[in-house]
Structure prediction request, 734 residues.
Amino acid sequence: MHILKWFSILILALFITLTATIGYVLLVLDPNDFKKPAIDWFHQNYDLSLEIQNFNWQFFPNIGITTDQLEIKTLKGERLASIESAKFAVSTLPLLQQSIQISQVTIIKPTITYHSDANGNSEWGKLLTPTPTTSTNDKPSLSTDPTQQALPFKITAQQLTLKDGTLTYKDAQKNINYEIKDLFFQADNVALNHAFPIKLKAKVFDSKSLALSINSTSKLMLKLEQNQYQLNPLNLTLSLLNVPGLNKPQTANIQLNTELDLNKETLSIPKMQLTLAGINTDLSLKATQILSKPSFKAQISSSTSNLQHTLYDLAGLKLPKLNDPQILKQLQITTKAQGNTQQLTLEGLNLIIDDSHLQGSVKVMLADTTLTGSLSLNTIDLDRYLPENEENRTPSKTVEQTMPQQPIANTTLIPAQALHDLNANLSIQADKIIYQSIPMHNIALTMTADQGLIQLKSLQLKTLEGNIQGQGYLDVRKQIPRLEFSSRAENLQLHPLLLGLLQQDIATGTLSFSTQFTTEGNSFDHWIKSLIGQSQLDLNNGTLKGTNLTQIAHQSFTQFNPLINALLPKDYKEKVPPAFQKDTEIRSLLAKLKIENGQITTEQLTADLGKAKSNGKAKLDLATQTLDLNLNLKLDESISNPTIAQLSWPIGCKLNTESLFSCKLNSQPVKKQLEKMLESKTKKKLEAKLQEKLKNELGLKPKQNDTKQTIKDQEDQIKNSIEQKLKHKFEDFF
Prediction:
């Protein structure tokens, strides 16, 4: 009973003391007495206005203080930050044990507004400017000495809550405008050196349009004395809504562990996983000297099992029906990245698309965005990635056009501004590339880019059993881009080249050529119209398939039979072969070409066709993709005779837009040649007979003593008489 009595007295004394303390605080201490000193101190240190409406005490169930309104404004009255209401409460009994146990911190509707003008200046600079100190050390001390870092109280918190927060960010210089609304943050059972759960939710708006929503949970470890912080694990869900460039809403899920040590200036992310639109990405990262000279090393791996769906989901890019429906399924990229504030390097870069494998390394200098690298490709069949042939394409009612279509001729081909900012030095090699059924092997090129001048230093490749070399440049430094290119090819097989480009079996042979051209513009149409250059080609041991030019000439013999029979000797036996091959032999062909304003014309064209010789002219219109070829054939005596071999057989050939090649004889010039030859032959025969006859009739037999003038006068008289008689005879003949 004695002990119980003293215990009751003690409890009563504590109650009376606590009641007296509360009464004293309520009657004597008014929290609003602290308003004016706080406002004056804030104004003196930051040259800003601080407004506090009311402070109120709270004693049940815990000791605390609340405020109804708090605002930070500029001297012009512009609001930088505000809180509608806030509550701060601590548990009473832990205070007796020198322990601060925060039972509740609640902030309702906090708002922060960050505005910067066209010069990048903001009133927030005043708040972010550190208060002057007497310390001579520019860098904050991160020492782990317990005498400097240990806190006098053990601090814990049952719950920290922030509700309905709003953050507004406007940058007039960069024309950026973002707003975060419905911001919610909550941390439970907060303690130092002890992991505790946190939650974060928010909605991000871009120009008043909801762009994305954020929902994350994590466990946070705070080791303030050691300046160490951990998030293990962090689960983050981003609902991407009206994000610019995104075709439709997507959800990004991120899971990671992170460790931050400010004393050692290290940041570590042992593993991060990201999933978005069918893309799975894994990342590990280690960063050092993050407060002084940041640098990092990372490993990245990303893949998708259906690239076509990913492209449509992310960018709205719906590809047309392709030649191979099985392509663009697999995409995988892995690399090791390292860098700092000066450069970024990708080593061991591996990119796999379907059956193609690209490897190499890339280095980017961040100061001037200079790109250097070396890449190698095993093989790629570009034909598989081309749209399906028109004749094999069937109309589909489900095809969606995501952008207005425009003619290819007027499509902008060169991203001039992007290339103007590009600085690069690249070397690229490829084992095999197939385009238009034409295989190209051992491809090697080097290129540089410097402030809008992109130079192809060298290009080498093997194709069609021959070699091609080239070089050139693209200049986008002026308003109109300019392109120059020169190349030389040796011993290419013509047949697969034409078969791949024209899909027509037209000709065979071994082709060598050299060409040089320049052009200007930024569309296919402008390129064609301003194309200027020259070329020379040499074709050997070839054939023109499906057409025999000598047969075209021989088939017209019957058309001119009356004239031909009149020219040939009476005992002549026709040497026309009973049949020709269906193709034209081309032993050699040499052409010098002129390229101007989208047309390629010949300055010289000669050919040895075996049983015939040829020269002629040609014109290829690149805009309409049509060819006009005019040849003059001289048939060999072995398939004609000396008289016929003197004739020129003009044959015109055309290649139309459907890649159909056809040739036919222009018979009118042949008829005129035959008539002229017959006229000459008949004239000589009649002239000889008439001359003899007239001499006899006129009795013109010059004597030895006749002068030269007398003889000439007699010959002129005979000549005039012959011409008159011949004129009447030819009029009767024709």
Observations:
- The chain is about 20% helix and 45% strand.
